[in-house]
Amino acid sequence: MKQWLCGLVAISLLASVAAGCGGKQESGQDAKEIRIGANFEMTGGVAQYGQSAANGIKLAVKEANAAGGILGKQIALIVADNKSEPAESANAATKLITQDKVVALLGPASSSNVLAALSVASDYKVPLLTPTGTNPRITIENGKLKEFAFRSCFIDPFQGTVMANFAAKELMVKTAAIYYDSSSDYSKSLTQVFEESFAKNGGKVLAKEAFLQKDQDFKSALTKLKASNAEVIYIPAYYEEVSKIVKQARELGITSPLLGTDGWDSPKLTEIAGAAALNNTFFSNHYSSQGQDPRVQKFVADYKQEYGQEPDTFAVLGYDGALMLIDAIKRANSTEPVKIKEALAQTRDLQVLTGVLSLDQNHDPVKSAVVVEMKDGKQTFKAKVNP
Which of 15, 33, 48, 56, by CA, is between 20 and 30 Å from 184? Predict the structure, then answer.
């Protein structure tokens, strides 16, 4: 009897260890819910992005659950705050996978935090889909595909090229200056791509200056950039610093066009910089709410009803990312993380808010971009750019 009890205890211990490995839920396919993890910047320096993306995901999950869920089960979205820090992002991914037993991860929002979480997700063989991480190294590095990494947004080389082409062909300028965030993988990658693409268009970068996240005074570097007499200044960075840079640039008498990226997209941009300062600024983005697409209009109305505010691009991309993952789980007909990963890789011609999306061999979307112009504090559609 004692031996039998010991054997039973050993079996129980083995079962508990097995249940703690990877992202498989405790009762697997028999679970009453499908647990999806959301690892986002709910607080910290880029909290606006994380909160917006998470809100978009929550709305998609709410709609999916109201329509019956996935595979006859409801979706349980478990949100973890990475505090806008890479180390915390890795911790959040570990918790979601090992303690909450999620079958897949959505997020984070910023590229640096995605790269930190991805190392954890890859070790546990759980798919990670970032709605907004644009750094190319997220999905492929040194020519090697990261098989558990996916995204629902275009990558830096595409939007860096979009803005370089826009400067050369639409604004018809030959010279540019760059002011970038040297503490951000996102900003450094975009800087490199813009400079290379602008040169291919016959343009020349006359000056480059760098700042750090959370800097407050940018006037010294802006004075140097102004002295270069460049026709445009490219600022590939996030809204928190960009809004202050734009405001201080105009205070210094810089009237030339200021160019940016999707990191500019936040209601706080106008709130901090001021509407007048943002005139004659342009940035690449994933969609424009100015169009007549009924899907977009419905989303905007539903989002405003749910959260009492206009959605930004991060909310839209979060919604798209959730649609991608839900679609993959349906096609996989399974909650096994590896099967979900395989289904994600086969995403083709999926209708999402930002258009029709297919993933290429690098797990990156093939989709269009738009250029947004700021006029009197409002975003206006300027141009659409196809891949």
Answer: 56
Strand order of the sheet with strand 365-366?
350-352, 355-359, 365-366
User: Are the beta carbons of 255 and 276 closer than 8 angstroms?
Assistant: no
Q: How far apart are CA 189 and CA 141, in angstroms?
A: 13
| Cα–Cα distance for residue pair 291/25, rounded to 1 Å | 41
Q: Report how far residue 224's alpha carbon sits from residue 204's, in angstroms, rounded to the nearest whole number.
A: 17
DSSP letter at 46? T
Architecture of domain 156-285: 3-Layer(aba) Sandwich (3.40)
Q: What angle do CA 113, 118, 119 make, to 5 degrees?
A: 110
Residue 72's SS3 state is coil
d(C-alpha 175, C-alpha 191), whole Å? 15
Cα 222 to Cα 157: distance, rounded to the nearest angstrom: 25
Q: What pLDDT sits at residue 292?
A: 57
CB atoms within 10 A of CB 247: 17
CA 258 → CA 29, 177, 248, 268, 282, distances in Å? 52, 10, 12, 17, 6
**CATH 3.40.50.2300 occupies which residues in the chain?**
8-154+294-368, 156-285
Q: Please report the sign of the dihedral spanned by the C-alpha atoms of residue 137, residue 138, residue 139, residue 141.
A: positive
| Cis peptide bond prior to 136, omega within 30° of 0 | no
> What is the fold of 8-154+294-368?
Rossmann fold (3.40.50)
Give 331-380 pLDDT, tens digit per residue: 999 999 999 999 999 999 999 998 889 999 999 998 888 999 999 999 99
Q: Whole-model pTM?
A: 0.77
User: Which residue ranges in the chain fall short of pLDDT 70?
Assistant: 1-31, 290-292, 387
Residue 383 has φ and ψ, to the nearest 5°, of: -160, 155
Q: What H or E segment, with its residue span, contains residue 341?
A: helix 337-345
Distance CA 297, CA 304 (A): 11
The pLDDT, as a whole number, for residue 293 is 73
Structure tokens at 291: 């169009």
> What are the phi and psi torsion angles at 331 (to 5°)?
-70, -30
Determine the residue type at 85.
E
